[in-house]
Amino acid sequence: MAKDLNQVVYQIYPLSFKDSNGDGIGDLNGIITELDYLKDLGVDVIWLSPVYQSPMDDNGYDISDYYEVNPMFGSKTDLMNLLNKAHEKGLKVIMDLVLNHTSDEHVWFKEALKGPNNPYYDYYIWSDTPSDITSVFSGSAWQYVEHLKQYYFHLFSVKQPDLNWQNKTLRTEIYRMINYWLDLGFDGFRLDVIDLIGKDVYSKRLADGPYLDAYLEELYETCFKGREVFTVGEMPGISLKRANEITSTHPALDMVFQFDHIALDEQPGQGKWMLKTLDLHALKQTLNNTQQIFKDKGWPSLFLSNHDQPRAVSRYGNPSEKYRNDSAKMLFTLLFGMKGTPYIYQGEEFGMTGIKMAIEDYKDIETKNIYQELKQKGFKEADIMNSIYAKSRDNSRTPMQWNETVNAGFSTGSPWLKVNPNYVLINRDTDQKDPNGIITYVKDLLKLRKSNPLFNTGAFNLLFEDHPNLFIYERASETERIVVVCNWTDVTIENPLSIEKMSVLLSNSTDHITLKPYYTGIYYEKRTIHA
Ligand code: NOJ
């Protein structure tokens, strides 16, 4: 039987979700208290960002023991409790698998540092001379080790040495670990930067490297085959076409995160910090491309947000008091009317916004490094901070805003990262009580998606493609069609569609003729069959 990928995934970033013991850090027991909320929202799958043992240089994406739970999040028993309670409610839990690198505090790396005669040395990537490859987190990707007179390779922080996947024993160890979590009952994985595992550093083929296909195949055969596993691979370095090929040919990955639509507010080729105003036309083209490429085969993931991306409503919508609610609903509708698996990042469901902090208050390693790098390159402080306000990963990592009590109900202690002061107005409870709230809308939208297969099967056609304010598309079969209308701007527009014969399935407005700023609506009609 084909896997049901028409599921809704909710990402939890444990550090910032809910603190149950007052230490200022979110934890597993905190998550357990909110499972009913997630179920009620319409979630099927919880993706848990890493909770493994880690020195937290990159907030858990630097793992020092793949088999242990970081005590700051709780114990293995708490994790199993979370899994069992989730299962009782019909929720799946997928773990975050970080396979491209470990922490430098992992025992493998500590052993590797003993030199070429140690069996773990070859688990990592070494060179006598550094090449010009740079780290995603600034500076060279090569770190010198004095006593070895050699450099090790790290595409992320210095404390995240890359694993050498070409070592067969390493791969066997990794597969053993994956099977351990599957045997415990976990339902699958989000695979961190998995496009990098097939790399050949020496010929500088990093993302989608020469061994990627072979390793994905081996991963499937050794771990996933014969099991019901939900998998999504993060692949920032691949093209849409390749994403489609991978999800239609590799059973190891049900879907991938591909980033063409995410990179549209960056100066092409200059990295995420060099800002560019997003052009609606480019967004239409990119999302249209995705939908066309994935039309008949492969499966896309539908996401705007995660723990690495700034808050969607601040980035693409309008976070002002006047328009936040409508623009958040518009963004959800625009995306979730398409073919694919919907992803919601914690707090997105009630329109949490980005934050502006003093540089000392940022905790993210990428942000701290780029600040130093851009300063050294002579960029003006104000320009650097503008980029950071727009793009820092801490925008989406501020604690979850549950209610209007102290620290937004996240923690009774001192939160590890500043709570956005707007929590008094923007929080889960306030939104949930509001009949016009975003949560209610998202619930209705998810139900609607599930009630009509056309959302996944209908032909995707852009309508009024050149309209400068409206993003309109249809999902059509021969007998019926759904039309999604979104006003991307703060301007009031006349609806260019004649909608007399259509019923409105969902909208953030009662007026479908004169479309208010950030209007959104989903219409339905049976099609007349012409003889
Ligand atoms: C992608 C993860 O989403 C990000 O948070 C992390 O810093 C890098 N991979 C490195 O693991």
UniProtKB/TrEMBL annotation:
Listed SUPFAM superfamilies: (Trans)glycosidases, Glycosyl hydrolase domain
InterPro entries assigned to the protein according to its UniProt record, in alphabetical order: GH (IPR017853), GH13_cat_dom (IPR006047), Glyco_hydro_b (IPR013780), O16G_dom_2 (IPR045857)
Pfam families (UniProt xref): Alpha-amylase
Coiled-coil annotated spans: none
Glycosyl hydrolase family 13 catalytic domain sequence ranges: 11-397
Entry's family note: Belongs to the glycosyl hydrolase 13 family.
Protein name as annotated: Alpha-glucosidase
Organism encoding this protein: Paracholeplasma vituli
